[in-house]
Amino acid sequence: MTMEPVALADPATAGGEAPDDAPSARQKTGMFHRAIRQPITLICLAILALQVVVALAAPWIAPHDPLHPNVQHRFEGPGAEFLLGTDDLGRDTFSRLLYGTRTALIASAQSVAIGLVLGVSLGLFVGYRGGWWDRIGMRIADVMQSIPALLLALALVAVIGNGLGKAMLAVGIIFAVSFMRVARAVVLAERERLYVDAARVLGLRSSSIMFRQVLPNIAPPLIVQASIALGTALLIEATLSFLGIGVDATAVSWGSMLDASRQHVSEQPLLAILPGAAITLSVLVFNLLGDGLRDASSPRGVGGKKVKRPKTVEGDDAPAAGGAVNGTAKAAGRHAAPEAAPADALLTVKDLTVSTATGAELVSKVSFHIGKGETFGLVGESGCGKSISAAAILGLLPKGVGVTGGSVTLDGTELTSLSGERLRQIRGRRIGMVFQDPISALSPVHTVGRQLTDAIRAHSDLSKAQAEERAIELLSLVGVPAPRKRMLDYPHQFSGGMAQRVVIAGALACDPELLIADEPTTALDVTIQAQVLDLLAGLRDRLNMSLLLITHDLGVVADLCDRVGVMYAGQVVEVRDVRGAFTSPKHPYTEALLAAMPHGEDSGETLATIPGRVPPAWDWPKGCRFHPRCSYAVDDCKSGFIPLDDGVRCRRAVELKLEGAR
Amino acid sequence: MIKFVAGRLLSVLPTLLLVSVFVFLLIHATPIDPVAQILGEGAGAEAKAQLAEQLGLGRPVAEQYVSWLVSALQGDLGASLYTSLSVSESIADGIGITLSLALAGMGVALVVGIPLGVLGALRPGTAADRMLTIVVAAGLAVPSFWLALLLALVFAVNLGWFPVIGYTPLFEDPVGWFLSLVLPSLALGVHTAAVIARQVRSAMIEALDSPYVQTLLARGVKRGSIVLRYATKNAMVPVLAVVAIQMSVLVAVSFVIERIFAIPGLGTLLMDSVVRADYPVLQGTIVVVAIIVLLVNLAADIAYGLINPKVRPQ
User: Fold this and answer.
1) Which of A123, A361, A661, B125 is the one with CA 20 to 30 A from A593?
2) Total-model pTM
C-alpha cells in the first residue's frame, strides 16, 4: 500500500484527525454517551449496578446465613422473618438469592475476563502475524466451535474436575474462541487502514502499533460481545450448577437452588420460581445492554416516520423554502401559469413537493408534462431530486419521505391521492419503470422467468403457461437470445446489459403507456450503453409509448428526447424543447451542463467542470439555489423566490446571452 | 451436485480428525486415574497393574490414540469403564432419542420464530413490533431448564396433560411418543425460536428494503406476494446459517432437558460419564456429537446452495 508522504508528517494527524475512516477512541466515548441516552440501556445499567452492590455487600445485607439449616422453619411462605420464605432445610430464600447474585456475577465476570485476555491476545497475535499462525489458529477455532459450548464445558469439567472456578475457566476458554475471532477480524480490517501503515513506516514497533492504534478501535465490538458473553456465562453457570457440577455445597447458586427445588415444588412453588426469575432478569440485563451498546456503536438514521401531506388548500401559492417576501406579488402572478400543460398530456406533474419527516424539501414545486408518444428528459447532477420525482410519480418513495404538495395526473387521474390498490393497478400496467442497476433490481434467488411471469400475472388472469409464453415473447422483444432457455436462469448468470434488457422486459410486461427509465445506462459498461438506449428508442416507437428518461448525460437527452427539464437542487430550472436547450440555453446551469458535456472529435481539450457540488436538501441556498456556483450571480440572485418564468428559473434570463452546445 | 456434496464431505474429514485428537488429548491430560476410578483407591498394586495393562494405559498416548482411532473407524468406540457396555451400542441407543428431541425443538423454533420475525419486519417500530422485541428478549434470557421445570409443573404435574418424565419409543406407541416429546421440545425450542425470530426480523427488513422489492412494486406485484414469495426466500439465506448453529446448540441443550425429563438419550449417557469420569464413553459421545454438528453444517451448506443459486455448482 502506498501513501502520500504528507500524511506521514504527523502520526497524530494520521491516527486521530481523520474522522471519516479512523474510528478512534473518541468513537468509543461517543458510543457510551449515546448508550446512556437510551432509556432501556440506562435502566439495565442501574439494575446491573444494584446487582454488583448486592453481590459485594451480600454478607452485610443478607438477613440470615444462607447455609444455616433451620428445620423448624421448613417450606415457609413469605413473611416478616423470612422475606421470601424458606427451603426444604429451612434456609432463608431471600438470603440465598442475594448470595446467588454474588456467585453468578463472580462466575460470569471470571469467565469473560479469562476469555477476553486469552481471546484478544490470541486474536491480535494471529491477526497481526497472519500466514501460518492465522491458519492454525483459525483451524483450532473451527474445531473448538464444532463442539457445542455447553458440551465442551461439560467435557472440560469432567477433565479438570468439578467446582465453579474450574467450570468457569472452561467456559472462559470457550469464550476465548469467539473473542479471538472478533479481535482477529478487527485487526485484519485495521491492518489495512492507512494509519497503521503510517505508524509502521514511522518505525513504531509492531506490538506498540497493535496496542496503541488497534486496541481502541476493537473496543466497541468487544464490549458488545463481552456484554452478551456475560449473559451466556451466567446461563452456563446456572446450567452447570443445576446439573450438579458447578458450585459445591459451600456456595449458593441460583442453578443449584433450582435443582434442589425440583423435589419440593409442590410444597413451596416459590422455590422453583424465584431463582429462575433471577437468572432470566440477569441474562436479560446483559443482553439488552449488549443490544444497546451495539446500537450506540453503529448509529443509524432515524426515519421510518410517515410523512403526512399537510392539509392546505390545493394550489396554495406560498413560495417554497426561501421564504421570500419581496417580489411575491409579481412572482405569484406569473407563477400561476408556468408552462401550461396541454389538455391531452399523458402525465402532468404540477407543483410536486416531496419532503422528509424532518421537513427538508427534497423536491420543491416541480412541474412538467409528457405528451403521448413523447420522450421527456429529466437531467441534472446527482442529488437534484430527479429520481425522487420519478419515485413520487409511482408512489414508491422511501420510508420517511412523502409527497407534501402538488399533483401528479395520469390521463386525468390524480395519482398522489390514490389508494394503495388502485395505485398498484397503475404500476406496471399503465406506467412501467426501469432502474439504474439491473442486477440489484432483480431478486437474486428467483429465476428471471419467475420474476417476469409474476409481473405479467399481477395485472392479468393469464395461466402460468400463458404468462410464460408472454414472458418469452417479451425477452425476445428486448433482444435476449435463446429466451426460452434463459427463463430458467438466475440474475447473476446475466451480463449487466442483458440483465437491463430483462428489467426492461419486466417493465413492458403489461404494455404501459408511459415508461420511466431512471438512469438506465449508468451502471452499464460504456460499450453496452448505446445498445440499451437504441433498444429503448426502438421500443418507444414500436409500442407507441411515452418515455420519461432520467439521466445526467446530456448526450443521451440529445439523442432520444423531444423535450427536456433541467433540475437543480430540487427545482426545475429550465424546461423546453431539446433543440432550444442545446442551441440557446436560458439558465446558467444548463449552460454549465452543456459545457461539461464531452464531445466526440476534439478530445484533447480539457473538460469544463462545474465548481462546487449540489448542496444537501436541508441546506438549499436562499434565493436562486444555484447562485453559489453560478458565474453570473449578482446580489439580487441571493434572495427572494425565483419563479419558473417562460420555462426558466433565473433572475437574469432575459439579459444573459448564454452559450449553447459546441 | 453429487460432486459438490462429496467435496464438502471430504473437507469435513480433517476437522473431524482434529476434533478426535483434541478430545483424546484433553481426556488423557486429566489427573484422573481410570484404574483407581474402577477399582477404588484401596485396591492392591497387583490388581491395579493388571487392569492398567488390560486397558493399554502403559503405552504412549500416540499409540493409544492410533489404536482407538483404528477401532473407532471400525465402529468400535471401546467399552464403559463402569458398565463394560459397548460405547458404540450405548450411543446407538441414545442418538435417535436425542436427535428426535433436538429436531422437535427446532421444529418448534421454526414454526414460532419465522412468523414472529416476519411480523416484526413488516411493521418495524410499531407498538406490535416493540411488543415482539420484548417477547424475543425474554425468550433469549429464559434458561431452558427453568422453562422445562415450569412447563412440567403446570402441564404435567398440575394439569396432567403430558407425562412428567420418561420417553416412549416411537414404534411402541406413536401417541405416547408424541406426548412425551411435547414439553421437552417446547422447553428446548423457545430460546432458539427467539434467536431465529430476531434473525428473520433483521433479514426481512433488509430484504424488504432491497431494490428488487422496489422493482416488483413498480411492476404492480402485490405487496403480500412480494413479502411471502420474494422477501422471505431472500431472507432465508442468512437465516439458514443461524439455523445450523442453533441445531448444534439444541443438541447440547437437549442434554440438560433429557436429564429433567429422564429421557435416555445421549445426554443422560454423557452426564453419567462426566460425573464418573468414564472417559471411553465421554470421548465417544463427544466425537459423535461433533460428527452430528459437522453434518448439520454440511446440510446447511447444501441447503444454502439450493436456496442461493450463486453458490450452486453449475
Assistant:
1) A361
2) 0.77
